[in-house]
Design brief:
This protein is mainly β. It has no helices and 9 strands. The strands form 2 sheets. It has a 5-stranded mixed β-sheet, with no helix packed on it. Strands 1-2-4-7 form a 4-stranded antiparallel β-sheet, with no helix packed on it.
């Protein structure tokens, strides 16, 4: 939701001018699918999240062990090669601006044979 604020109204030669400012809290615009990907060992995968908002939110991606793996303005993306089981797990992606916060958790799972 955008919030508009009217700061000034002027009229010159019959033309009315408005001075507006607007803001919007961060909002996730990439998928909210909690299971990001099923990946086999020794394969590369990119985990990413994208947010909208004004001012542009600061985005951080943190692995479940507390390690920040990526950050950016409006989005964060991290590519890894899955060499061990330790590379799989939850990634928390959060966006923060002066207008609020939003976030999503993404799980990277190991691909395997379906057992019944």
């Amino acid at each position: 939701m955008y919030v508009f604020k009217l700061f000034e109204v002027t009229q010159k030669r019959g033309v009315i001018s408005l001075l507006l400012s607007y803001s919007a809290p961060p909002r996730l615009i990439s998928s909210r699918n909690p299971v990001y990907s099923f990946v086999g060992y020794r394969q590369s995968v990119t985990v990413s999240c994208v947010f909208s908002g004004y001012p542009t939110p600061t985005v951080k991606m943190v692995f479940e062990n507390g390690t920040e793996v990526a950050s950016g303005n409006g989005s964060a993306s991290f590519t890894l090669k899955t060499d061990s089981e330790d590379d799989f797990g939850m990634f928390n992606c959060s966006a923060v601006s002066s207008q609020g916060t939003d976030g999503v958790s993404l799980e990277l799972k190991i691909a395997g044979i379906c057992q019944t």
